[in-house]
Design brief:
The chain is mostly helical and 260 residues long. The protein is 70% helix and 0% strand. The longest helix has 59 residues, at 16-74.
């Protein structure tokens, strides 16, 4: 009986060396596949990793710029405060109202009132919920100071207009701004927000009323009475007679009259 393994064309059984080589090749192929998968995973997650780093960096820089802005403002370094606040405007995704609010507050400290007003109005457009409370108060204060400047320049009508705008901004503050939660979110927790709002409203009403009152009429000089007029006429007539008499005594000379 003939062994099947000895037939022509039959594959001889694999030896131990062949089995080891085959296993090594399979392991290398598996490692290549794993490396390829890891490489594609790394490429796919790279944008997420960069986004996460950007997110963390933005948060850290936001707090750093805010701290620098506040510190400079307290030290009356308004230009430094403005510069730090403008650093918050880059990629302003988180609490977007804060960057223009801090810039506007710094500009107000530097008496750049029109620019401060523009930034605070921008902040008010971006603010939501209780965020509007502090923005409205600061905007009202800036408008009040613009009214004071107009009044100092003699522009009473312009001053009254600014006071009216400030009063509108202040009185339209939501009722929720009188809550403890709003006070906790205030940019200046040491200042009573409700009291500041009420004081501002009282000042604005008084100032607006003062500017809208008509100016007092100029006092007219008292007119002389009829008796006084008659007395003056008598004196003038007497003086004329004396002058004519003196000229007659001098022979009608042409000399000039003496001053009265």
């Amino acid at each position: 009986m003939t062994d099947l393994s000895t037939r022509a064309g039959a594959t001889p059984p694999a030896g131990p060396d062949d089995l080891k080589a085959s296993a090594a090749a399979a392991l290398l192929a598996s490692n290549r596949r794993r490396r390829s998968i890891r490489r594609w995973i790394a490429i796919g997650t790279l944008p997420l990793a960069l986004a996460a780093l950007l997110f963390v960096g933005k948060i850290l820089s936001m707090y750093a710029f805010a701290h620098q802005s506040i510190t400079a403002y307290v030290a009356d370094d308004y230009s430094g405060s403005e510069a730090s606040a403008r650093g918050q405007e880059f990629l302003n995704w988180f609490e977007p109202y804060k960057a223009p609010f801090n810039v506007g507050t710094a500009l107000a400290g530097a008496e750049k009132l029109p620019e401060a007003r523009a930034k605070l109005e921008e902040s008010l457009d971006l603010a939501t919920g209780l965020e509007v409370c502090t923005v409205r108060i600061n905007l009202g204060l800036v408008l009040e100071r613009m009214g004071d400047a107009a009044r100092a320049d003699g522009d009473g009508a312009g001053a009254a207009e600014f006071y009216g705008e400030a009063l509108t901004i202040t009185t339209e503050t939501p009722e929720e701004c009188n809550s403890e939660e709003a006070q906790e979110q205030s940019s200046d927790p040491d200042r009573d927000m409700q009291q500041s709002k009420e004081d501002l409203e009282d000042r604005l009403k008084q100032k607006q009323q003062n500017e809208q009152q008509p100016p007092p009429e100029e006092e007219q000089e008292p007119q002389p009475s009829e008796e006084k007029l008659e007395e003056l006429e008598d004196k003038l007539e007497q003086g004329t007679q004396e002058r004519d008499q003196q000229q007659g005594d001098d022979g009608g000379g042409s000399g000039t009259d003496k001053p009265w």
